[in-house]
Amino acid sequence: MTMRTLPVPPHFVAAIVGKVWRVPYEQRAAEAEAWAQRHQVPAAASDAKRACLLLVDCQNTFCIPDFELFVAGRSGNGAVEDNLRLCRFIYRNLPAITRIIPTLDTHATMQIFHPIFWVDRQGEHPKGGQTIVSLEDVRSGKWKVNPAIANSVAPGGYAKLQRYAEHYLGKLTASGKYPLMIWPYHAMLGGIGHALVSSVEEAVFFHGIARKSQMRCHIKGEHPLTEHYSVLHPEVREDEEGKPMAAQGREFLQALLGFDALIIAGQAKSHCVGWTVADLLAEPEARATGLARKVYLLEDCMSPVVVPGVVDFTERADHAFQRFAEAGMHLVNSTTPIERWPETPL
User: Residue 1 CB: number of other CB atoms within 10 A?
Assistant: First the structure.
């Protein structure tokens, strides 16, 4: 594969990266084929070394201002700025990216991190984005599982679900995971928030046509009784009886291990990106195959969760990424030519 940085195609409009709009597929497909011919961009099947761009949750719900969980970072416009850089990275590096895999955080109404799942002593729901539920909160009766939803989300009735909630919160605490944050309803399956950001979708589509490479979406987060920040594993992997909570990402991991380079971007640095990278680092197969040295983290294409006056995960995210770098992963900038990245992967 020839290492070349291409210009950004003229259809890309930076001013609308933070907006929702319809991608004109037919027009972009014709332009992508013409662009590939003009710049001699080969089909991905010809790549001697293969690079995967893993896009973690580049969805409207996290990336568009005024949507449910906009990742503002400390700048206040984090995800929009990140996606501006990400789109340019995709266009400029079309010949270097073999496949793009976007993940999609995917939720229903009644999930353990949504307000309707919990009630206080007065029967009121917690405020999404402003409430943390702890094990002590549940044991003291400050918060309890909403009896009205028990039969809708799990067999066994209310008492069993309440016991499970204590088990879940205990596991989060024991494993050093983030405490259970009650989030606003977000990434709702079938809703506009669930969709990829329009500008990112357009760039991914353009890449697929230009390189004759099928985009593969990976769904996560559907199980009602666990958070699922990481692409590979749920936050709590077993219920109170020791049974698996949700599908584990073994097959997906095997697919990632098959690439010569794994480039990661997306939202949020402190949550879904951070836990995905941590799980990759912890996998025995990944360690055995030296995956860490093949991982490139586009730090300028991700932001941490910051809710002013409530939580700021910036420092915790930065600390985690320093640990990833110490383990052999590479922290890189999207504007640096790939041939200048450390241990040039391609």
Answer: 15
Given a contact cutoff of 8 angstroms between Cβ atoms, the answer to whether 291 and 330 are in contact is no
Angle between helices 78-92 and 198-211 (to 10 degrees): 10
| One pLDDT digit (tens) per residue for the chain, 346 residues | 446 899 999 999 999 999 999 999 999 999 999 999 999 999 999 999 999 999 999 999 999 999 999 999 999 999 999 999 999 999 999 999 999 999 999 999 999 999 999 999 999 999 988 899 999 999 999 999 999 999 898 888 899 999 999 999 999 989 888 899 999 999 999 999 999 999 999 999 999 999 999 999 999 999 999 999 999 989 998 888 888 876 667 788 888 999 999 999 999 999 999 999 999 999 887 777 888 999 999 999 999 999 888 789 999 999 999 999 999 999 999 999 998 998 876 7
SS3 102: strand
Q: How far apart, in whole angstroms, are the C-alpha atoms of residue 15 and residue 84?
A: 9
Start-to-end Cα distance in the chain: 8
Give the separation between CA 131 and CA 181, rounded to whole angstroms. 6
Q: Contact 50/260 with Cβ under 8 angstroms? A: yes
Q: Please calculate the CA angle 233-114-155 and round it to the nearest 5 degrees.
A: 70
Residues 6+ apart with CB under 8 A from 124: none
Query: Model's pTM, two decimal places?
Result: 0.94
Return d(Cα 175, Cα 57) in angstroms, integer. 24
| Cα-based distances in Å from 76 to 88, 128, 238, 321 | 21, 19, 37, 21
What's the rounded Cα separation, in Å, for the pair 61 and 190? 12
d(CA 100, CA 311): 32
